Automatic annotation (TrEMBL):
Pfam families: ABC_tran (PF00005). This is Sugar ABC transporter ATP-binding protein. GO terms for molecular function: ATP binding. The keyword Kinase does not apply. The lineage of its organism: Bacteria, Bacillati, Bacillota, Bacilli, Lactobacillales. Keywords: ATP-binding, Nucleotide-binding, Transport. Residues 2-255 form the ABC transporter domain. InterPro entries: AAA+_ATPase, ABC_transporter-like_ATP-bd, ABC_transporter-like_CS, ABC_transporter_ATP-binding, P-loop_NTPase.
């Protein structure tokens, strides 16, 4: 459904020298440098897949989405969505996609929400019967009825986001681009949106490309993760593959009978590739399970101090992605 080959986007950045003289110089004789926002991205997304497109701020996610939706033109490379070129086939192409940018709305600010949908019905030329059926479905999965007649400007952030998602789905798009759809929302609204995304994907086989900083979205929604950094791919695979490849760092938590006993334990001296954190009567030990066996850590601890409780935690997606973003994976795979 989505095919991307060697996609690149380079921007010209003006380099300004210091002071007033530098300002005049950049005004009349600007010096520019090339900035590569996206570098040789290649990936294919099959029909019906929920594709998690993630990375730190400035990694190139939004630039890539703007190229895929036809807002920006690539410097080089090629992308096709459902057989359309987003830039060359723009009029036909936009009828095939839905787009939600978490910090921007496509709704008319002063119109009641129901009238906004009526306008979009005409824009997308949705037949009356199909429109009524579609609105019934969207009302059900996104719970719009309580505010369907309210002006858009009176809606809360959570209501507006649900309304925006409904607007993007009104014409039954084959591909849905969601850029930070749960940003700034409370837990209950996030849960509704996640359930709606899952329902749309499962019932209509809609292909979904999702960018998010909420790592719970990734774990609950995405069948595949594509992680980029500085415009380049650093991981492409399932959550299970991510855990298998990079989930080596485990955590064991010891609750001490006497909090002063923490000074007796010196894990760094006894083992290599171990890090610890002490909080009152609790010690958190982080270790690479491929290099330090868990039984050795437990035995070392029990031989020296009395323990009230012990818990072992496997690495989760949130921890792995955070380490990616902090550049602890890839640049320095040995770091904890």
């Amino acid at each position: 459904m989505i095919e991307v080959h060697d996609l690149n986007k380079t921007f010209k950045k003006v380099v300004k020298e210091k002071g007033l003289a530098g300002s005049f110089k950049s005004l009349f004789n600007p010096q520019t440098v090339d900035f590569e926002a996206v570098k040789n991205l290649t990936f294919n997304v099959p029909k019906g897949q929920v594709f998690g497109f993630i990375g730190a701020n400035g990694a190139g996610k939004s630039t890539t989405i703007k190229m895929l939706t036809g807002i920006l033109t690539p410097t080089s490379g090629k992308c096709t969505i459902n057989g359309f070129n987003p830039q060359k086939d723009r009029k036909k192409y936009v009828q095939e996609i839905g787009v939600v940018f978490g910090q921007r709305t496509q709704l008319w600010w002063d119109l009641p929400l129901q009238e906004t949908y009526s306008v979009l019905k005409e824009v997308y030329q949705v037949p009356d019967k199909e429109f009524r059926t579609r609105m019934g479905f969207l009302n059900e999965i996104l719970d719009l009825n309580d505010f369907i007649n309210d002006p858009v400007r009176t809606l809360s952030l959570g209501q507006r986001m649900r309304a925006d998602i409904a607007a993007s789905l009104l014409h039954r798009p084959k591909v849905l681009f969601l850029d930070e759809p749960t940003i700034g929302l409370d837990v209950s609204v996030k849960d509704k949106i996640r359930k709606a995304i899952t329902a749309i994907n499962q019932e209509e086989k809609t292909t979904i490309l999702l960018t998010t900083h909420d790592l719970k979205d990734i774990e609950l929604l995405c069948q595949r993760i594509y992680l980029i950094d500085h415009g380049e791919k650093i991981f492409d695979g399932s959550i299970e593959e991510l855990k298998k490849q990079y989930g080596k760092i485990h955590e064991v938590v010891f609750k001490l009978e006497n909090k002063n006993d923490s000074s007796i334990l010196d894990y760094q001296k006894k083992f290599s590739n171990i890090d610890t954190a002490v909080a009152e009567d609790t010690i958190h030990v982080y270790f690479d399970a491929t290099k330090v066996p868990l039984p050795n850590i437990i035995k070392y601890t029990l031989d020296r101090v009395p323990i009230v409780d012990v818990a072992v935690k496997d690495p989760d997606v949130e921890d792995i992605v955070r380490r990616f973003i902090r550049r602890e994976i890839g640049n320095d795979s040995e770091k904890v």
